[in-house]
Amino acid sequence: MKAAMIAGKGIVELRGMPTPTLGPNEILVRMRACGICGTDIEKVNGEHITPPILGHEVAGEIEETGKNVKEHKKGDRVIVHHHISCRSCYYCKNGFETLCEVYPKSNLDPCGFAEYFRVPETLVKGGTVYKLPPSMTYDEGSQVEPTACCIRALRRTGVKAGESVAVFGVGPVGLTHVQLVKLYGAGPIYAIDVIDHRRNMAAKIGADVTLDPVTDDVPKTISDGTNGRGSDVAIVATGNPKAIQQAIVSVRKGGRVVLFGAPARGTLVSLDVSQLFLREIGFQSSYSTSEAEMRMALNLIGTGRIRPSLLITHRVPLERVAEAMSLAESGMEAVKVIVQNQ
User: Fold this and answer.
1) Does the pTM of the predicted model rise above 0.90?
2) Domain for residue 295, yes or no?
3) Which region, left, alpha or beta, applies to residue 183 given φ > 0 means left and ψ of -120 to 50 means alpha?
4) Neighbours of 279 (CB within 10 A)
5) Which pLDDT score, from 0 to 100, does residue 264 have?
6) What is the DSSP letter of 323?
């Protein structure tokens, strides 16, 4: 079979390798769709802060099951969450599953961008393999995990109906945040991005105001639209440190900033901390997701309340995965890029 591997900084190669063999409690999935995440691009460029395995937004069809697997069978259409917590440590018991030391140690073998991948016993027994509803496509299924990540961030931030929200960076996850906060009843919603077509898409799916951070005075525009206060919440859905700085000066006194976009390793930000103190700005980061949000995302997409298919601009065959990575990284033409294995 073939799978995408990092061959060097900025280089992705599709390599031939043996199809994974299964243990008695494992599953082999034929990948049908795998979304490209911003963290995949960081891994390729050597800037990753998460395990350097490519592809985790996966959906596919079960090809084979181990002899002890009873809940799943060959031919089942599924999605798989690639991490699982221990469920017994201090962090798991207090709602911080993604901070569990066990959490990042599980993964797909050899990766998500492969013709086939093995789902290890820890994930199968942990219940991270979900059957797709008959009406849900593989492309839509692949977007359950990133949607779940966004849901977790909003749960941790506590976004409420009627609150104003500014989303800094409206790539795929930023646009998902726009859809979600619109569903939650938030507003006005501000979408901030340097790329025209992303701002246009944000307007189509629910943003009330779109702004270019280079040419527009973002803090003033948000202040003018919120009776001089600033937004209640700012979501930083990009790893660009300048967005963090702009988000902090765009929220109201007592507002909340959530860091969602993964920054590159070693990223430093210059802040006037006295203003954080005097204005009582809350700052919350949010990493990955848990099974609770996975189930919520599956329900929201399955019932059509969130439509990730609106964000998919490019579908690229696995044979051209390197091209797909470049397309996603540039961002000038694409929003969401899906790698398919038909």
Assistant:
1) yes
2) no
3) alpha
4) 15
5) 79
6) H
